[in-house]
From TrEMBL, chain A:
GO biological process, one term: lipid metabolic process
The organism's taxonomic lineage, starting at the top: Eukaryota, Metazoa, Chordata, Craniata, Vertebrata
A GO term from the CC aspect: cytoplasm
Protein name listed in UniProt: Platelet-activating factor acetylhydrolase IB subunit alpha1
Compartment(s) where it occurs, according to its Swiss-Prot or TrEMBL record: Cytoplasm
From TrEMBL, chain B:
Signal peptide: 1-24
Ranges for domain SGNH hydrolase-type esterase: 95-254
One GO MF term attached to the UniProt entry: 1-alkyl-2-acetylglycerophosphocholine esterase activity
Keywords: Cytoplasm, Hydrolase, Lipid degradation, Lipid metabolism, Signal
Natural source organism: Cyprinus carpio carpio
GO cellular component: cytoplasm
Alphabetized Pfam families for the sequence: Lipase_GDSL_2
InterPro entries: SGNH_hydro, SGNH_hydro_sf
Superkingdom per UniProt: Eukaryota
Name under which the protein is recorded: Platelet-activating factor acetylhydrolase IB subunit alpha2
Gene Ontology BP annotations: lipid catabolic process
Amino acid sequence: MDVIGASFHNRFVSDSKGKEPDVLFVGDSLVQLLHEFEVWRKLFSPLHALNFGVSGDATQHVLWRLINGELDYISPKVVVLWVGTNNHGHTPEQICGGIMAIINVIHQKLPHAHTLVLGLLPRGKNPNPLRERNASVNALVQAEVVSLSHVSFLDVDPGFIHSDGSILHQDMYDYLHLTQQAYQRVCQPLYERIKSLLDKQAP
Amino acid sequence: MCALSMNSIFLLTVELLNFHSLQSDLVNHCCSFPLRQHVRSLVVLCLCCRLRMSAEENPAAEPAPVIDVQGDGRWMSQHNRFVQECKDAEPDVLFVGDSMVQLMQQYEVWRELFSPLHALNFGVGGDTTCNVLWRLQNGELDNIRPRVVVLWVGTNNHEHTADQVAGGILAIVQLLLSRLPKCKIIVLGLLPRGEFPNPLREKNAAVNNLLRTSLPQLGPVQLIDVGGGFVHSDGTISSRDMFDFLHLTASAYRTISTSLHELLLQLLEETPQERRASLV
């Protein structure tokens, strides 16, 4: 892990010692950047959410972080997992395997938590192999978790791909990362799902 | 002279100058006035050249696109979009650079302070000086006449030394001045990065120091260092300012934008507008 990664990891571990989050977001830049926009303050802060997103992380990085302390001092009721789009060179099966490994670690460390896995978004301005790869990952993960009571899958793509196959820069300014307006569209249904999971878990 | 590298010329000139200062009486008698002037000009030229360094000598001044290894062609898509924007827009201000520029447009501060100045944002995450140079040479300066260009790039030049990075930035500035003769240029200094003191902080500071004196020698160009205040007395940078110890939060962008915005207003007032019709 490089120097920057270590900084995050250490901060996340020490952060988690003082706080009692009900919701934990973990993943890559799509999670990390979410924290920087108004939508986080409006929708997720009130749910007592912590954000452990690290830009560039692939499944193996998230797995390492969760095994090495980031889940040790907290008991969130819901863990939102959003990772996989940075797994370059891996097959959809491998990426799905990575996501399942993370789900298993979460379940081991937090037996009472529910993991909400978010589908990978399409990317790139026009149709390309990574869109196909991400869609395959989603299909595989969805099939794997359907029989697990402590996991559910949520497709958060509100329809970013237009009829001509393109993604607009008004939604993804670099055809990967979300603009504020795109985050609004993604987060509303996500918020609803988290809320209903929290309500189910309430004593 | 052409056979000698710029560094050799520089060293030769320094030798000459040393000789000159030690033996000034002798030189005054022996060297004609034109020769002394020539030596002086040569020194200035070499100081600039040493930093400017041609593409053959400085890899950071070599234009290069980003090759798509991931598979979704995002870099070229962004470049093509900017080239299209040049056909449609008439910006007064052009921001160009890496993610430090690109991310600025995602926060409210862009809409409040910079959109009203008719600013275009040609930032691309991950870009080095080589990538920015390539983009500007391949369409991103076509058909536009911004009065001010804000350049912010260099922190991603991981393969290059501070000297080389500064040379790359100078090469971009030279290109801008040659394509936009009436333009004023603001170069933003590279920010410190990383949670704790580390070699990249030193490198970025070295780049800024090299640019501070060499930039104004090129024309109406200035270095603005907006990095002061990010490093605390214990040497750390807070995640409240840089959420990943590299990229700025909304509040940090707001802090640096105030003075930048004021400077832009000032420069725009000083520089006359060129309407597209007059470019024919």
